[in-house]
Design goal:
With 196 residues, the chain is of the alpha+beta class. The protein has six helices and seven strands; from the N terminus they run ααααββββαββαβ.
Length: 196
C-alpha cells in the first residue's frame, strides 16, 4: 500500500514520465522506425520540407486547372466552326537555309489532344516540300530552319484535308496540337514540285 501511495507523489510521477520519454525518444536511435529517430530534427525538417513541396504542388495544380477551365470556356466562346490552323515557332532554329519548295526535310513530330495527351510520336520522317505526298506538313513547315521547333494547332476538321488527322480528331473528339522538329534540310535537284 505504501508503494501505491508512493506513485501518487508528484516527483515520482514526473520521474516516471521523463524515464518513458527518454527511452522513447533517445534510445535505439539507429533504428529508422524508432520514435527517437523519427523525432530527430533532421527528420522533422525533411518532413516539413516534403509537406511544403506537396502543398505547393497541389496549389500549382489547382491554379493550372482553374486557368485551363477559364481558357477552355474562353476558347469555346471565341472559336468559330471555321477556325483555321495556327502556327507558332517555339524555337526558330539556326543556319542560313530555311525550308522551302524543293527541299528534302527530315522531321520528328508528336501529336497531342487538347488536354495534352500524346497520341502519336514519329522519331524521323522524310518529306519533300512540293511533292504533294504529305500536303499537310509540306504546307505548314515552310520557313523552318534546322533544329527549329514548330507548334501547329488544328482546331477542327474543317481546317484540314489530311484524312489521317481528320480521323484522329474524330477518334479523340478533340482539337489537335502537332509539335514538329526539323532534323535535316537538303535542297534537291528535281524541279517538278507543286508549291503555292
Amino acid at each position: 500500500m505504501k508503494l501505491f501511495n508512493l506513485t501518487r507523489h508528484p516527483l515520482v510521477r514526473w520521474s516516471g514520465i521523463l524515464a518513458v520519454l527518454y527511452f522513447a525518444l533517445f534510445s535505439n536511435k539507429d533504428n529508422p522506425r524508432s520514435l527517437g529517430n523519427r523525432m530527430s530534427s533532421k527528420n522533422i525538417e525533411q518532413g516539413l520540407r516534403e509537406a511544403k513541396e506537396k502543398s505547393e504542388y497541389i496549389i500549382e495544380n489547382v491554379k493550372m486547372a482553374r486557368s485551363l477551365a477559364v481558357n477552355t470556356t474562353a476558347q469555346t466562346n471565341s472559336i468559330s466552326p471555321k477556325a483555321s490552323i495556327s502556327i507558332q515557332d517555339l524555337n526558330i532554329g539556326g543556319g542560313d537555309l530555311a525550308l522551302s519548295c524543293g527541299n528534302e526535310a527530315a522531321i520528328s513530330y508528336a501529336i497531342y489532344t487538347k488536354d495534352a495527351t500524346q497520341i502519336e510520336f514519329v522519331d524521323s520522317k522524310k518529306i519533300i516540300i512540293g511533292s504533294k505526298s504529305e500536303p499537310f506538313f509540306e504546307e505548314n513547315l515552310i520557313g523552318m530552319k534546322l533544329g527549329g521547333v514548330r507548334s501547329i494547332d488544328i482546331p477542327n476538321i474543317d481546317s484540314i484535308s489530311d484524312q489521317k488527322l481528320i480521323d484522329l480528331i474524330k477518334k479523340h473528339n478533340s482539337e489537335l496540337k502537332i509539335q514538329v522538329t526539323l532534323l535535316s534540310l537538303l535542297p534537291i535537284e528535281n524541279k517538278n514540285f507543286f508549291c503555292k
